[in-house]
Amino acid sequence: MTDYDIIIVGAGPAGSTVARSAAENGLNVLLLEKRQEIGVPVRCAEGVGKEKFNEIFKDIDKKWISAEVDGAKVYSPDKKTEIVLSGDKAGNEAGYVLNRKIFDKDLVKLATLAGSDLMVKTTATGLKKNKDQGTIELTMQNSDEIFTAETKILIGADGIESKIGNWAGMNTTLNLNELESCVQYQMTNIDFDERFCHFYLSYETIPGGYLWIFPKGKNVANIGLGVLSSLSKKSPKEYLDNFVNNNFPDGKIIEINAGGVPVGYPLKSAVNDNVMLVGDAARHVDPITGGGILNAMIGGLFATNIAIESINKKDYSVKTLKKYDELWKNDFGKTLHRNKKVQEKLLTTDDKTLNSIFHSMENYNITEANTKKLLYEIIKRNPKLLWDLKGLFI
Ligand SMILES: Cc1cc2nc3c(=O)[nH]c(=O)nc-3n(C[C@H](O)[C@H](O)[C@H](O)COP(=O)(O)OP(=O)(O)OC[C@H]3O[C@@H](n4cnc5c(N)ncnc54)[C@H](O)[C@@H]3O)c2cc1C
Fold first, then answer.
1. Among 262, 279, 303, residue at a domain's last position
2. Which pLDDT band holds residue 394 (cuts at 50, 70, 90)?
């Protein structure tokens, strides 16, 4: 096969973003995807923050968006209190609810129109460093055919199940307490407030995670939940069925998806010689919300810039690629770290405490608060929590 400047393994939002921008910058690019069709099955609630999404795309195709919401509502475990967050405070997952079947496919179309090669139903199966050339030889399999290609830079955009980092000698182990197991139904015939994305918290009925309802159109929504595998006593489906039967007895399930979300700290470093990891493969997922689409694309753009720099310098060493680490750490990396600490606190907070925090915040104007201000306010109203929460300010 042809030699490439960049080979990207995985055509999710991270991989197709790298492929498009690298091809637009004149690089010789190959994008690989093991599925036979891009974008399906959709293992995602499909929520993204409006502001950042609008920054990434100059031209947003209306077909990418199933619904647009005003913000988010977060419910206390006893459901007696709800906190309403406006669009700009609702974080990276509430704003637009995408149609990823169309969106993911269109991102790949844009990459190929920019000049990237694409192989679907093709799985990366191993790699070898070519020390003489300073390149990587990637082995791939398409049906029964096994072949190799040479690349200067290899991008691991292979999602939660990523193997690229491990093959390249990086420690990408995901422990059981860092894995959120999710199940989601797309449901029709349900009556809910379609102006918001809805989040339900409960240590007892959704251990280590939360339940979401994201609108997909009139009386249609993605309803799903994620539970921490290490804490849950039942399967995520049992928890979800319980909620759906109690709240939407007339709802009809038109699609079922299951998937995993990495909720540990991001990798300390997402690079090695010739290799960069992006998106879920680099654990660039918010540990509280499980949102990773925007970071996958933003990180993908950072990785492309550094790949271009290293190719121009003919230096693909870890020393040069480390600049990618600096970029993502200075951007969303800090938030991922802070939110991981908050998530660890949440994991030890029982429903009684959560209820009292929610109740104490009932009349607070959250739309004017940033996370730090919010934490101060929670402590002001719940002084007993000072000792528990003080670590979050460091
Ligand atoms: C139930 C659920 C709900 C979610 N909800 C949200 C949400 O509302 N908002 C949000 O922002 N995020 C959400 N996420 C997370 C989001 O889906 C991911 O963060 C996002 O898809 C990451 O993009 P990616 O490109 O890194 O990986 P992926 O989208 O997972 O893409 C990786 C691709 O690599 C391919 N691949 C893997 N191995 C190989 C190989 N060896 N060879 C070739 N191809 C390979 C896979 O087939 C896949 O297509 C959710 C996740 C789950 C599971």
1. 262
2. very low
